[in-house]
Amino acid sequence: MESVSDRVELIRSKLPDLTSLHDALSQGKLHKDIRIKSQKILIPYKGFGKRTVDAIIREIVDERVECCCELIVRQNALADVGILRAHMLRGMYDFYVQDVLEGQIVAANLDIWQQEFDVSLMFVLSDSQLKFAKAYARDGPEKIAKYERMVAAQEKTLLDFKGGQLGDPFLTPVLGERQNFSATEREEFLRNYQLVTLDVAMANLELCEATLRLFENQARAIYYWRLSLRDIEQSPMGKVFMPHDDLNFESELQKIYLERCQILAERAHDLTDLAARVVNQGRAGLS
Fold first, then answer.
1. How far apart are alpha carbons 81 and 60 in whole angstroms?
2. Residue 239: in which H helix or E strand, if any?
3. For residue 71, is pLDDT > 90?
4. 164-168, 204-208, 219-223, 224-228: which has the highest mean pLDDT?
5. First to last CA, the chain
6. What is the reported pLDDT for 203?
7. Where exactly are the structural domains of the chain?
8. Which letter does DSSP use for residue 173 in this model?
9. Residue 162 to residue 97: CA distance in whole angstroms
10. DSSP label of 180
């Protein structure tokens, strides 16, 4: 089974080609002008590109709905483990600052605030993706109802987590008096810290992989949309009738998906590294 680090490195290795694909699509390049590796994204299976453009675009939209539903599930999972980690950090704040981070209050606060911000962001993203899925799903309301309930539950969980108001800023933790923690208490915190932090790292990685599938879907959407407009683009009035603003918007959206992949991969890597460093440093203090 691949480790988080191995899977992160695999994603990192793909980023240059994905960036090249985004740049090529934003310039309106055709299939033959795009790198071989990226061509596999535009034609994901044999015969994909041999149908009518309308049929291809319909399949891309259906796939986008599936991507949105998967992202809602992954974001919900990340929010759940993120809440556990935030509660754990606040619950053992004194020990985390005094014994593990050796008084680095700013570092502890940034860790907590980043985790809590991630929890809030997951709901915002899920709400947006639910709107798309509801607008374009062809499977009927029964399927989407499942994800509506999931997003509603996620909103309630977030409200409970933040004390009842979505707009409330997160409170700055207050450091207590210096305490002498027992070896058992220290070991329990370090074990829980490692387990929960690695769970959050894995949730970030799985969300990254799901976002990568959304990026690939968006790449196909832009390419085949441009293909459907090729006659208009090559006509004498092409500059007038081409939906340049819409195409630019879709290109920027695709860029955001790629940046999100990179951020999530780095977050997974950093949390994995942080878990190892905190546990090693904490256990060194026990010896």
1. 31
2. helix 238-241
3. yes
4. 204-208
5. 33
6. 97
7. 4-41+50-286
8. P
9. 23
10. -
Is residue 260 within 8 Å of 211, Cβ to Cβ? yes
Question: Which of 253, 216, 228, 208 shows the shortest CA–CA distance to 45?
Answer: 216
Three-state SS for 78-129 is HHHHHHHHHHHHHHCHHHHHHHHCCCCHHHHHHHHHHHHHHHHHHHHHHHHH
Residue 264: pLDDT band with limits 50, 70, 90: very high
Task: Take residue 80 and report the two structure tokens written for it.
Answer: 């759940």
User: 3-15 burial string, b = 16+ CB within 10 Å, else e?
Assistant: ebeebbeebeebe
Whether residue 56 is predicted with pLDDT greater than 80 in this model: the reply is yes
Integer Cα distance of 42 and 29 in angstroms: 12
- Between 56-60, 101-105, 192-196, 264-268, the lowest mean confidence (pLDDT) is in 101-105
Backbone torsion region of residue 103, taken as left when φ is above 0, otherwise alpha when ψ lies between -120 and 50, otherwise beta: left
CB atoms within 10 A of CB 58: 14
Entry pTM: 0.89
Residue 49: Cβ-neighbour burial (10 angstroms; 0-12, 13-18, 19+): middle
Residue 122 tokens, joined:
């997951």
Q: In which region does residue 163 sit, left (phi positive, over 0), alpha (psi from -120 to 50) or beta (all else)?
A: left
Q: How many residues does the chain have?
A: 287
Structure tokens at 74: 């992954």
Q: Rounded to whole angstroms, what are the CA distances from 121 to 71, 73, 81, 144, 149?
A: 13, 14, 14, 21, 18
Query: Using a CB cutoff of 8 Å and minimum separation of 24, what contacts does 160-165 make?
Result: 161/83, 161/86, 161/116, 161/119, 162/116, 162/120
135/245 Cα distance (integer angstroms): 22
